[in-house]
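Troubleshooting: if your tokenizer reports a length mismatch, compare against these two reference records.
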Amino acid sequence: MRDLQERSPIWHAVAWIGIYVVVVNIGDWISDVFGEPNSATTALLAVLAVGLVLYLRSDGWLRYYGVRPVRRRNFSATLLYIPLVLVAVMQYTKGLRNDLDLTAVLVIVALMICVGFLEELIFRGMLFRSIQRTSNLTRAIVISGVTFGIGHIVNMARDMTGLNQVIQIGFGVVLGIVVALLFAVTETIVPLIVFHTLLNISGSLTVSNPESELFMLAVTIVIGVGYAAYLVSVLRRRGSSPEMSAPAPSQPVQPGR
């Protein structure tokens, strides 16, 4: 797998996307068998997250993929991430679900922390960087964002209706491009992990129906397009973060590796 990371970075990212999807489906199946929704999925994704961190922490790959602190200059250039906060918070206007007990809420929160971390690291970190290394920044932003949105089609296996699936993909594409732009501006995925987690939590704890979801999608598109236009202007004015053009960490072959 490490050799694949060096020689064919895009396929390395695709391989991890595949692993993630397989783990989610296995976790959902085990959870259904034992009648405890999300429980096994959460446990397996937590193990996967730890394993991926250990795998990437050597030789600077974790930092290269965006797991680094936010710099004040870059933080201010994002409008303090306020548009993302609005998108996450407005979900609560739909009203809270009344079918969840405390245990179910805690499991959902834990699951969404794992999902937010893994999806940002894999899609915004690994896939984005691999495309950038073999192409350019613009293609990395667009392809990683669109791929992230289309990737939500796997939710069909979770009994999601066709309309809800389309809405999920629409959300994913719009927000995927926005957060990819944010990564290019700031070189960090840490705030994106926080946003992704909060958005997923608010979406999971609130009432869902086609009308409210379509309204949320429309508002998200308006906010997302405006925010994306602002971030594009930032990139044109000052360029991407210097770390975006830094070469990938070297990966010398060592005995036993």
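Reference record two:
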Amino acid sequence: MKKVFLSLGIALLSITAATAQDAKKGAEQVKTSTLAVENMAFATDSHSFGTVAEGPTADFEFQFKNTGREPIVIQRVQASCGCTTPSYTKEPIAPGKTGIVKASYNTLGRPGEFNKNLTVISNAGTKVLTITGTVEKAPTTSVPENSSMIRTN
């Protein structure tokens, strides 16, 4: 019986020692990132289109510079609604280089004020960009509306 307990104890001790060594090697191999969301230095994080006509898309490109020491990779850009279509630089942005996040707002059928967010998710962190403006309703026809009370046939 003593031999069984002794064998189990030795086996348990050797497994524990091997696991601890593997964990130490894994910790040494983990590379810590020095990137922070501040390393995505955007020229501006909001844009106002002012008043735009209904119909064509309103487009704006947010540019940023990588001020970190590692490449920035944008994983995805999520718009706050389906009326805004984002596009962005797909390849890694090297230190000192610039990248772009483009916002395209579909104005068709959306008269009035708008305030939309784009959430940029990258290996440097998460950044929220904002576009705002007012869509001016397009005329329903090219002929002026008859506002007289006389009915014409």
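Descriptive notes for reference record two:
- The longest strand covers residues 125-136.
- Residues 23-29 have pLDDT under 50 and may be disordered.
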